[in-house]
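Hey team,

Filing this mostly as a record. A colleague (T.K.) asked me to run one chain through the structure pipeline before their review meeting, and I want the input and output archived in the tracker in case anyone asks later how it was produced. No errors, nothing strange. Just documentation.

Input sequence:
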Amino acid sequence: KAKYLRAFQQGICAAKTTITVSSYMAREYLARFGGNYEVLLNSVKDPMIQSKRLGKNITLLFAGNISINRWKTLLAIGMALDNITLKGKTGFAQLRIYTPNPIDDETRKQLEKSSSIIYGGSLNSQELRMAIESADFLVHVESFDEKMKKITRLSISTKIPEYLASNRCIFAVGPKDIASIRYLQENNAAIVSNSEQPESVKNDLLRL
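Output structure:
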């Protein structure tokens, strides 16, 4: 590991510029390795989708990878939505989940614990745009597992710029020290919940 880090640092210092996916990554790498950095986020060319007037029935949409235990955070949202619906806060509240890759049977079984979660498989780009148009809110989640946090801590999901360009309010759930969550929170770009407890998530959903 030490040999790899030395080679990594030598490469950074020899390069004119190192591209990072977040300012958080640039700052930490600068402190640890030196060098020069530029931040490059995912670029979105599509125009904003027309805004949508809220009705009594609410649809939230998550489109992305649910690996590294992100599904656990999605389940917490589903459980919170179950509670909101049971208390008559809305007609029905659904969380529609679309993933690029099939999910295993155990993960699907866990998600089925919430009656508010609808798993829809994968979508092509046109189908995804239609799904976003029909949604009231877009959902971004990160895992609260300490092991998984080490993987995502400095990365900003490529989905964030796409969500921001959609003209939809974003609901994000995840630890406050993960780059994607920090980015949304610091820029006041989403309603953010920093807890995976369904009761806390429910309160933030009601704010949404």
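Quick notes for T.K.: The chain has a mean pLDDT of 91. The radius of gyration is 19 Å.
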